[in-house]
Design goal:
The complex is a heterodimer of chains A (209) and B (251).
Chain A: H1 11-14, E1 18-23, H2 34-45, E2 51-54, E3 58-59, H3 65-70, E4 79-83, H4 86-99, E5 104-110, H5 111-120, E6 127-136, H6 144-150, H7 160-171, H8 177-185, H9 195-207
Antiparallel strand pairs in A: 1-4, 1-5, 2-3, 2-4
Helix pairs in contact in A: 4-5, 6-9, 7-9, 8-9
Chain B: E1 13-15, E2 35-37, E3 41-43, H1 53-56, E4 65-67, H2 75-81, H3 103-106, E5 113-120, E6 127-128, H4 129-140, E7 145-146, H5 151-154, E8 156-158, E9 163-164, E10 172-173, E11 176-183, H6 187-197, E12 204-212, H7 221-228, E13 235-239
Antiparallel strand pairs in B: 1-4, 2-3, 5-11, 5-12, 6-10, 7-11, 8-9
Classes of the chains: A alpha+beta (209), B alpha+beta (251).
């Protein structure tokens, strides 16, 4: 499960892309962890995330938020909240540290910024995971502009051809960019797709068509 | 009565040709580009990874996309491609394990060791297990320890050789992840071997490496990667260490 890793993009674009992931260690602290996972979602919702989701249930573009909250599995799942700005992500991080719920919290984002906000919140980072990029037959990949969008669903549920097709629709004026982004976001069950960042990227991509 | 396999009916995702109205709406949704048009839409069963996106998207106006459980080894396509499918080996939805996300509690990655994940087929291309096999065998020769709960390790005949069982080698999946750990001093050898063997595969892989953060906030693998001139992204995952009970013997 490396689904929040390997998001490609420029530093400017990634500066609006922070994901908080919360999960129990199965078999160790997963029993009755549901209320803690729900509390994580409730706390993050106070900081206006642009997406939230439960890997086992769906995201806020496929289910309503109350449905996600009410159906967090009793003995654990993996839940997420996505922020389009560093300030909101940092505020959620600080509040989660103070709440001290006891499950594992992973922050995906620009390392230097995450490190600084961890220090401000009194958190000593336990471990980091680096993306060493894409290896192998990279000539099979679509253009970077498509990759920057599809890599926001780490499970690969959003195809490059759908991104292209939606960019064409936006360019032709047959679809609004926010509707195109919703169409992609609902396919990423975990709710780690960043629709605000995607809207900017898709608008730029449509401009090249 | 003949079995499904004997009748050649081993596919999971199908389009009912008697119902399809050839509207082409489903075509761009397939992550593998496996749906094309004949008189009606058809799925290339060899390229289809049974991820279920075509069905889950709900875009077919006449509901002609059908899901049928498949037989082994075809069945593992859905296990590795549809993140809603729970792997029996991990108890988790998705394709990998908890890896270091819960490490402050599990202690899977120990001081002085590094963890690596090599995710084949990600992004966009999908992968066949014959490519996974090439890399797992090369890494096994270096003595890396494969994560026992990982679904790819589960497909190895013998984790000490990294050999994937032959009946699955041609199966295509959206992605499959090799997860392993090794002592830090082995990192140059592991990374150089990986650079060499991934030139011989017919797909892409996204590579990750994890390390524990020292009490003074240093990350020891920074120097290893810098010395080898290996790129890493400015963004990635940080485990904040807030889980408990804390694993005894960690950092």
């Amino acid at each position: 499960m490396t689904h929040t890793l390997h998001r490609s993009g420029t530093k400017e674009s990634l500066s609006g892309d922070y994901i908080l992931l919360y999960m129990p260690a199965f078999g160790i602290n997963s029993a009755d962890s549901g209320p803690k996972l729900r509390k994580f979602l409730e706390i993050t919702l106070r900081h206006n995330p642009v997406n939230i989701g439960d890997t086992r249930r769906g995201n806020k573009y496929s289910l309503d938020v109350q449905n996600i909250l009410d159906n967090v599995k009793k003995d654990g799942t993996v839940v997420h909240a996505v922020f389009d700005n560093e300030k909101a992500a940092a505020a959620a991080l600080k509040e989660l540290k103070e709440a001290d719920l006891g499950l594992s919290l992973v922050v995906s984002g620009i390392f230097d910024r995450v490190k600084e906000h961890c220090q401000k919140a009194g958190i000593h980072r336990h471990a980091v995971t680096y993306s060493l990029g894409i290896w192998g037959k990279t000539e099979k990949l679509p253009p970077e502009q498509s990759l920057d969008i599809v890599t926001m669903c780490g499970h690969g549920m959003i195809s490059a051809s759908l991104v292209d097709s939606l960019a064409e629709e936006v360019k032709a004026g047959r679809k609004k960019v926010e509707d195109a982004v919703r169409e992609m976001a609902r396919l990423c069950d975990c709710g780690i797709f960043n629709p605000v960042r995607a809207a900017k990227l898709l608008t730029a991509l449509a401009g090249t068509k | 009565m003949k079995s499904k396999k004997e009748r050649g009916e081993i596919a999971v995702m199908k389009i009912d040709p008697d119902v399809c109205i050839a509207c082409e709406v489903c075509l761009p949704y397939c992550p593998m580009g496996a749906i094309s048009m004949d008189d009606v839409a058809v799925i290339d069963q060899d390229e289809c990874v049974d991820c279920g996106v075509c069905l889950k998207s709900g875009v077919c106006p006449v509901d002609c996309i059908i899901y049928e459980p498949a037989l082994w080894p075809r069945a593992l396509r859905a296990d590795f491609s549809n993140p809603a499918t729970e792997h029996k080996t991990t108890g988790l939805p998705g394709r990998g394990t908890e890896e270091v996300k819960t490490n402050e509690v599990t202690g899977r990655l120990k001081p002085g060791w590094l963890a690596m994940g090599i995710e084949f087929g990600r992004p966009v291309t999908g992968a066949r297990f014959r490519d996974v096999d090439k890399v797992s065998r090369a890494l096994a020769k270096l003595g890396v320890k494969f994560e026992p709960k990982n679904p790819v390790t589960f497909l190895m005949e013998d984790p000490s050789t990294g050999k994937i069982q032959p009946d699955v080698l041609n199966e295509k999946v959206l992605s499959a992840i090799i997860e392993c750990v090794f002592p830090r001093e082995k990192a140059p050898e592991v990374l150089k071997t990986l650079q060499k063997v991934t030139r011989e595969i017919d797909t892409v892989c996204s590579v990750e490496m994890a390390d524990l953060v020292e009490p003074d906030e240093r990350v020891p693998m920074d120097k290893i990667l810098a010395d080898l001139g290996i790129f890493y992204r400015i963004n990635g995952k940080t485990n904040t260490g807030l889980g408990r009970p804390k694993f005894k013997g960690g950092n």
